[in-house]
Amino acid sequence: MIKIEFTPEEIDALELERYHHPDPKVQKKMEALYLKSQQLAHQEICRLCRISEPTLVAYLKQYQAGGLEQLKKTGIQAQLAHWTNTLRRWKPISKNIRRAR
């Protein structure tokens, strides 16, 4: 289980966005994270939101990577942000690989 600490302000923002964000996909993400902030088990969140466990884990990782703004990204925006973060993590490693040759 992924552990995330939520501030009262973050919980308030999740509660607002889960009903008022213009994109229904983002609303679902916000709902899942709001339920997580209320200490519900992953299985229960998945049942209530009608999402799979891997989808929930992806939402949680998006939130850990960039907070609410990251959750608001959908489709190509989310994929681009994911790969950009991956490249940033690999950049220092690739320098060490080149030096080792």
Summarize the topology.
Blueprint: H1 8-20, H2 24-37, H3 42-49, H4 53-71, H5 76-100
Write up what this structure looks like:
- The chain has 101 residues and is mainly α.
- Helix content is 78%, strand content 0%.
- It contains five helices and no strands.
- It has helices at residues 8-20, 24-37, 42-49, 53-71, 76-100.
- It is elongated and about 50 Å long.
- The termini are far apart.
Which descriptors apply to this entry?
single chain; about 100 residues; mainly alpha
Average pLDDT reading: 86
Distance between the termini: 40 Å
Low-confidence stretches: none
Q: Tell me about the biggest sheet?
A: none
Find the count of extended strands (DSSP E, 2+ residues).
Answer: 0
Please identify the structural class as seen in this structure: mainly alpha
Helix content: over 70%
How much of the residues is beta strand, in percent? under 5%
Count of runs of 4 or more consecutive helical residues: 5
Question: Could you give the order of the helices and strands?
Answer: HHHHH
Overall body shape: elongated
**Rg on CA atoms, Å:** 16 Å
